[in-house]
């Protein structure tokens, strides 16, 4: 079902809460030995609306009048609202062992034996706030992978495979001690 929220969006002030920069999120995984990428299941719909706002997101069908009780897609500020929420609940972990881009979460560990503890910390927050993951979009304990449409690999970063021109014929860079 698609609801037109144009009039409501016009009446709402724009929320300028910033989204993280993807390049900085990817760079923050440099030196990490293990990553776990997770996707929130129907992310925006996991944020409950205040009861007094239900009437603002009501809609009429041929059968009856209904209203959303959770944040629907199509509202102007859903991205900013969701980002603010995840920034707040994951604050102790951000930049340390976790990065979040809206409904995409990345747990990162510099040492392999630390990764389970980092995941336990993340899952404790997810349970506390009753956030659910989409298991089909999660990858746990990998050395690189797909995070928010960008491929991350602690050794080398690249864009989507169709955009990656490759570097054949070039010597692999090495670090001088």
Concise summary:
The protein is of the alpha+beta class. 21% of the residues lie in helices and 18% in strands.
Task: Set down the secondary structure blueprint.
Elements: H1 6-11, H2 22-27, E1 34-39, E2 58-60, E3 65-67, H3 78-89, E4 98-101, E5 104-109, H4 115-128, E6 139-142, E7 145-147, E8 150-152
Antiparallel strand pairs: 1-5, 1-6, 2-3, 4-5, 7-8
Return the structural class: alpha+beta
* Spatial order of the strands forming the largest sheet: 4-5-1-6
Number of strands: 8
Order of helices and strands: HHEEEHEEHEEE
Instruction: Tally the helices.
Output: 4
In the CATH hierarchy, what is the class? Answer: Alpha Beta
Features:
single chain, 177 residues, alpha+beta, Alpha-Beta Plaits, four-stranded antiparallel beta sheet, two-stranded antiparallel sheet, 8 strands, 21% helix
């Amino acid at each position: 079902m698609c609801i037109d929220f144009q009039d409501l969006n016009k009446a709402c002030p724009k929320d300028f809460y910033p989204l993280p920069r993807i390049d900085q999120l990817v760079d923050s995984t440099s030196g990490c030995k293990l990553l776990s990428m997770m996707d929130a299941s129907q992310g925006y719909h996991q944020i409950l609306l205040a009861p007094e706002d239900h009437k603002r997101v009501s809609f009429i069908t041929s059968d009856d009048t209904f209203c959303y009780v959770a944040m629907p897609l199509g509202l102007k500020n859903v991205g900013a609202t969701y980002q603010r929420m995840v920034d707040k609940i994951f604050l102790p972990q951000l930049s340390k062992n976790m990065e979040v881009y809206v409904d995409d979460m990345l747990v990162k560990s510099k040492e392999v034996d630390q990764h389970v503890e980092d995941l336990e910390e993340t899952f404790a927050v997810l349970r506390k706030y009753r956030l659910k993951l989409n298991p089909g979009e999660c990858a746990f304990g990998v050395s690189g992978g797909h995070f928010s449409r960008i491929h991350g690999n602690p050794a080398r970063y690249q864009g989507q495979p169709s955009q990656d021109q490759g570097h054949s014929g070039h010597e692999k860079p090495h670090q001088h001690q």
